[in-house]
Design goal:
The protein is built from three helices and four strands. The two termini are about 20 Å apart. The protein has a single domain, classed as Alpha-Beta Plaits (2-Layer Sandwich). About 35% of the residues lie in helices and about 25% in strands. A hairpin with a 2-residue loop joins strand 2 and strand 3.
Length: about 100
């Protein structure tokens, strides 16, 4: 399953910009991949890993702004479609359990 996270954090003061950068770096360090600006996703292999990721997000959440997430199955995530622009994704879109590269 995929945990999809989107956030909207204020970036007016230097402190707010620092909090934004720290939050973004923590997401990337924990395995989230940026799909668009302020839209990240992470592959969770099972519900235990999903719960652990949710606990981690609760720990690193900023005091101000909006952070929300939802879970999708791999099949639902694979059905997403690109309407405008070039597909710049570097990961494979497949619902197969085993992928040979």
């Amino acid at each position: 399953m995929r945990l999809v996270l989107n956030f909207d954090l204020p970036q007016v003061t230097l402190k707010e910009k620092r909090v934004y950068r720290r939050f973004r770096k923590d997401l990337i360090k924990y395995g989230f991949v940026m799909n668009q600006y302020s839209l990240y996703s992470k592959l969770c292999l099972n519900s235990t890993q999903q719960k652990r990721t949710e606990e981690y997000l609760a720990k690193i959440k900023p005091d101000r702004g909006t952070v929300e997430y939802f879970c999708l199955t791999e099949k639902q995530y694979a059905r997403r479609r690109l309407l405008v622009g070039a597909d710049g994704s570097e990961y494979l879109q497949s619902t197969e359990r085993q992928v040979i590269l």
